[in-house]
UniProtKB/TrEMBL annotation:
Domain of life where this protein originates: Eukaryota
InterPro entries xref list: TPR-like_helical_dom_sf (IPR011990), TPR_2 (IPR013105), TPR_rpt (IPR019734)
Protein name, entry field: Cdc23 domain-containing protein
A Pfam cross-reference name: TPR_1
Chief place where the protein resides: nucleus
UniProt-listed GO biological process terms: anaphase-promoting complex-dependent catabolic process; cell division; metaphase/anaphase transition of mitotic cell cycle; protein ubiquitination
Swiss-Prot/TrEMBL keywords: Cell cycle, Cell division, Mitosis, Nucleus, Repeat, TPR repeat
Length: 727
């Protein structure tokens, strides 16, 4: 009963029938209370989005897997202290925790969320040292700005580690197939190693395995046992406790199935052809299945020979009759339970072939040759599949190197380098939603909104269900003033997932573009409610407060965003803008410099940092910063205009005039350019040209403040400065 319930609980979890799994597992634990069954119940609760239930039933449990599941529940409930205590017991902090890389990763997450950056980085690096294919750990290191080069983390030196990690199961299966195990080992792997002299019980086991397969149900995870007195016992399934397996990500090897004797010898040999796609779990399963299947067949034949050698006085014909009589008894029992019809016919054919195989082995030499053949088959299979897996690992690590290097460049805001790396990917990998979204984000950081829009549109076409980075796409459309596209994007995202924070960020950008800042702010706050650790939602809320000139609440939003992610440079930039508007230039410089250290390739940040330095009367530093901004983005007119103003301040009028002439060609509708040119001509005492440019500036309808400045400059042209000074 216990094994049956465990099997159906696992089956329900595999089929995502979570409510059914919870119900059956509650019945299981009520009938057979054990900590192992409690772990299975906790898994059901976690899968059914009931972390609080898992938390209460696992609290105080001491088994390693129980502590691991308890930590998962605590993380879901933001109980970081208890999660840390479960993974690293307070009594022995240096003790090795279970589940290897996964636990190290969870500890890294805990330390990251509790502002212990250095320890977080340490555990993420430990995760990669244990399992180099743990991409999520490298992703976190990139976000923290502490990732090593991808060639180090995913280099060729990591191939043996990955191979050892994923082929260890196959090696253990080889050892299990060659040696008899204790009853504890039998329960662990779901296998039953029978006595070599007990052929009747072996045949009875074969009957049950065959009945199980032909009945149409899945294999039971519990151990299959035989009655000590007779193989025809009505209740031949015992109900042992499930195996307390700590490595939940590794499936147990399949049961030995010796009944498939009709297959040819070639079908028993593993396929040695190289496979194009690497899948470590599937290949390990194939290795295990091939080895156990082959071992089962050979051992059945060997057992038959050993049984016959004990009765040398009897002829082979009598031995075959005895074998048929034994199997007939087991067959009748199976028929009385649930094996009927074609099952019996299949079994009789199989048993007849089994007898023929047994009678064909007549000497010890035959047994030894078969044993040698088994060993050679296992060895060749293992070597062949190991080579195939090693090749697959190398290809996988090469792919991860490319992806990791591109992602690292993007997190360090080296966007051009990231784009170059992503271009090296194959078309299959490049034309995926994740890659195209990263490409779109890179163009967004480069302030190339048109290419960003194109990349994001391709990503939407390929994976319309993926909402990752779609909040950035909504900001791209906001900057492009694409009102209709932004509305359509928001509606599509609502249809996909209305409870995703990215969806509400898109809705908020849509309202903000329509100047409905109250509704935009409510949308951003809704995103924060859905995920309090979504830094961009806090930042967008701060932007809305700044637009509404509520600087106090804007500062709070930016600071909350930085508490979530200290490398979120947009919030540093937002704080700098607030202090710049309040003319707190020292504070503004500090926050702009923080943003600049995080993203040293943003021309926008450089421009505002230069503006702040100019306000602090540090013209030389400001000019240097503007020149850097121009080098980074030659298409951005703001640094060029500011550079011209600084040159005028420093008395370099001709250099400033050259820059303004260039700007006039690029942006002919900007009144400030003509006003500054008029000022330069006035200083050079070219009053006619000065009046002409002041007039053009007024015709372009500048702001009220600029109109007043231009009119005052025109008055000074009519009354020269010398006369004004004499008066």
């Amino acid at each position: 009963m216990e094994a049956l319930l465990v099997n159906y609980v696992e089956k329900s979890l595999e089929q995502y029938m979570r409510r059914n799994a919870v119900f059956l597992c509650e019945r299981l634990y009520a009938e057979f209370p054990s900590e192992v069954n409690l772990q299975l119940l906790a898994r059901c609760y976690l899968n059914n989005n009931q972390p609080h239930s898992a938390y209460y039933i696992l609290k105080g449990m001491q088994m390693a897997q129980s502590r691991y599941l308890f930590a998962i529940a605590c993380l879901e409930m933001d109980l970081f202290c208890e999660a840390e205590a479960a993974l690293l017991p307070v009594k022995d902090l240096c003790a090795e925790v279970p589940n290897g890389a996964a636990v190290q990763y969870l500890l890294g997450i805990i330390y990251r969320d509790t502002d212990r950056k250095n320890k977080s980085i340490e555990h993420f690096r430990k995760t990669l040292s244990i399992d180099p294919m743990f991409w999520a750990a490298y992703e976190q290191l990139c976000m923290l700005g502490e990732a090593e080069e991808a060639a180090v983390c995913f280099g060729d030196a990591t191939v043996p580690c990955v191979q050892e990690h994923y082929l260890g199961n196959a090696s253990s299966c080889l050892q299990i197939a060659d040696t008899d195990h204790s009853s504890d080992s039998s329960q662990r792997f779901g296998l039953e190693y029978l006595s070599r002299n007990d052929l009747k019980q072996r045949e009875g086991n074969n009957i049950r395995v065959m009945c199980e397969n032909n009945h149409g149900g899945p294999s039971l995870t519990g151990a299959v046992r035989l009655s000590k007195n007779s193989c025809c016992s009505t209740s031949f399934l015992s109900t042992p406790s499930p195996v307390p397996t700590q490595r939940s990500d590794v499936a147990p090897p399949p049961l030995v199935r010796n009944i498939h004797l009709r297959q040819s010898e070639d079908s028993l040999r593993p396929n040695t052809q190289a496979r194009g796609k690497f899948a470590c779990d599937n290949e390990s399963a194939q290795i295990r299945g091939s080895l156990f299947f082959d071992s089962g067949l050979r051992r059945s034949a060997r057992l038959a020979v050993g049984h016959r050698s004990l009765n040398t006085s009897q002829g082979s014909e009598n031995k075959a009759k005895s074998l048929h009589a034994s199997t007939k008894l087991s067959s009748e029992t199976c028929s009385s339970t649930f094996c009927q019809g074609k099952l019996m016919e299949t079994y009789e054919v199989a048993v007849s072939e089994f007898g023929a195989t047994s009678s064909s082995l007549s000497s010890t030499t035959d047994v030894k040759s078969i044993q040698h053949e088994i060993e050679n088959t296992k060895l060749s299979s293992f070597i062949s599949d190991s080579a195939t897996i090693k090749s697959g690992i190398s290809n996988t690590m090469k792919l991860l190197r490319t992806l990791g290097e591109g992602y690292r460049h993007l997190c360090m805001f080296r966007c051009k380098e990231a784009l170059n790396v992503y271009q090296k990917l194959s078309s299959k990998q490049y034309n995926t939603g994740w890659i195209l979204s990263q490409v779109g984000k890179a163009y967004f950081e480069l302030v190339d909104y048109l290419n960003a829009d194109y990349a994001f549109r391709l990503a939407r076409q390929i994976s319309p269900y993926n909402l990752e980075e779609m909040d950035v796409y909504s900001t791209v459309l906001y900057h492009l003033k694409q009102d209709m596209k932004l509305k359509y994007l928001a509606q599509e995202m609502i249809l996909v997932d209305r409870f995703a924070p990215q969806t509400w960020c898109a809705i908020g950008n849509c309202y903000s573009l329509q100047k409905d800042h109250e509704s935009a702010l409510k949308s951003f706050q809704r995103a924060v409610q859905l995920n309090s650790r979504f830094a961009y939602a806090h930042t967008l809320s701060g932007h809305e407060y700044v637009i509404m000139e509520d600087y106090g609440k804007g500062v709070e939003c930016y600071q909350t965003s930085l508490h979530v992610d200290a490398r979120h440079y947009n919030s540093w930039y937002g704080l700098g803008m607030i202090y710049l508007c309040q003319e707190k230039f020292e504070f503004a410089e500090h926050h702009f410099r923080q943003a600049y250290q995080i993203n040293p390739l943003s021309s926008v940040i450089m421009y505002y940092l230069g503006t702040t330095l100019e306000a602090l009367k540090r013209s030389e530093e400001a000019l240097e910063m503007m020149e850097k901004a121009i080098v980074i983005d030659n298409k951005n007119p703001l640094p060029k205009y500011s550079k011209a103003k600084l040159l005028v301040t420093l008395g370099k009028l001709n250099e400033a005039l050259e820059i303004l002439e260039e700007l006039k060609e690029c942006t002919p509708r900007e009144s400030c350019i003509y006003a500054l040119m008029g000022e330069i001509y006035k200083r050079n005492k070219k009053y006619d040209k000065a009046m002409l440019h002041f007039g053009i500036a007024l015709d372009l309808k500048p702001s009220i403040v600029d109109v007043a400045k231009i009119e005052a400059a025109i008055e000074k042209l009519i009354i020269p400065d010398e006369m004004e000074e004499s008066l």
